[in-house]
Task: inverse folding
């Protein structure tokens, strides 16, 4: 595996001048958590398996940190049915065998609509290829992705540590994502099931226009308030809630207290599919598409020019029918990066 398939981002350090890290979340089906955990240990040649409950495993103390494997059904992951029944006092009424049977029944039903997920620890930029290795070993042992079942909409999430927590840089990254969105859709070609499902909803045009306005220069507090007003959900192709919660937990959770938000100093790039069963699908394409977003965010002059052009484009009466024209504009910028 050539590590150079994973391109380097334009900024290699975080706000503390430490090397940046990246986490990944890979969803899949048709491979049990127990088998998955064993395959990770075999592939990496180190680490040990810990079973939290039948629906939540960890592979700990590898050279790449810990890996978490779950049936992505929060009730079972966090507690197991037995723990919840204990909290409400029903564990004294039902014996352990009945509780286990109920738990297994719920899990079996969940497995028909809920995928498994493996999450990495934050990885050093030199180690990103480990997710490609895990994807390959899972595929060889029968893991399936989005196209495997009409109920599944498996994703591959990229969680790059932010290079800066300054509001101006976060806004520029968001602007770059807006400008590249149609091109990224064409490049990554996410399955229609995921695009129809609410998991990777695009941003509303009114918010895009607001953020792309050259006069939009809010404080962090105002930016967070604006973001939540327009996006009171994690279900965006680029989800900023983990990052904004890391910056100001009280401000976010005071409004979105019922949302499952894991505060971390990362962007949550949710657009790519998991096509783990397809031999020609590679995790580095998803990562490299994010690197393109960061490259545009760093090119301040082009970012400003393209933002103004895109605002004019969006104001056209039939702009939604002319996306290919905008994608051609993006390709022109990409060609300048390659020349």
Result:
């Amino acid at each position: 595996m050539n590590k150079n398939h994973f391109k380097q981002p334009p900024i290699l350090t975080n706000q503390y001048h430490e090397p940046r890290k990246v986490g990944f979340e890979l969803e899949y089906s048709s491979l049990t958590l127990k088998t998955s955990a064993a395959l990770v240990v075999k592939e990496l040649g180190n680490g040990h398996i810990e079973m939290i409950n039948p629906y939540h495993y960890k592979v700990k103390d590898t050279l790449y940190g810990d890996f978490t494997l779950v049936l992505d059904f929060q009730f079972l992951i966090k507690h197991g049915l037995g723990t919840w029944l204990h909290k409400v006092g029903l564990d004294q009424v039902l014996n352990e065998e009945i509780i286990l049977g109920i738990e297994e029944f719920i899990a079996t039903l969940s497995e028909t609509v809920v995928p498994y997920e493996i999450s990495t620890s934050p990885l050093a930029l030199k180690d990103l290829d480990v997710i490609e290795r895990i994807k390959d070993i899972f595929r060889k042992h029968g893991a399936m992705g989005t196209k495997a079942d009409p109920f599944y909409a498996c994703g591959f999430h990229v969680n790059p540590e932010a290079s800066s927590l300054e509001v101006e840089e976060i806004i520029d990254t968001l602007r770059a994502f807006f400008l590249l969105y149609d091109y990224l859709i064409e490049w990554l070609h996410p399955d229609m099931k995921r695009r129809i499902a609410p998991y990777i909803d695009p941003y509303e045009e009114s918010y895009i226009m607001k953020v792309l306005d050259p006069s939009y220069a809010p404080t962090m507090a105002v930016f967070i308030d604006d973001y939540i007003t327009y996006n009171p959900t994690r279900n965006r192709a680029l989800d900023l809630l983990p990052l904004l919660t890391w910056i100001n937990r009280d401000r976010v959770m005071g409004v979105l207290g019922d949302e499952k938000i894991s505060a971390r100093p990362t962007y949550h790039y949710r657009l790519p599919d998991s096509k783990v069963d397809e031999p020609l699908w590679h995790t580095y394409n998803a990562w490299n598409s994010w690197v393109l977003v960061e490259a545009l965010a760093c090119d301040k002059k082009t970012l400003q020019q393209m933002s103004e052009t895109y605002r004019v484009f969006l104001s056209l009466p039939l702009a939604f029918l002319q996306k290919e024209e905008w994608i051609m504009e993006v390709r022109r910028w990409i060609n300048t990066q390659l020349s």
Remarks:
- Residues 74-82 have pLDDT under 50 and may be disordered.
- The first strand starts at residue 21 and ends at 28.
- Residues 247 and 325 are 37 Å apart (CA to CA).
- Residues 144-339 form one domain.
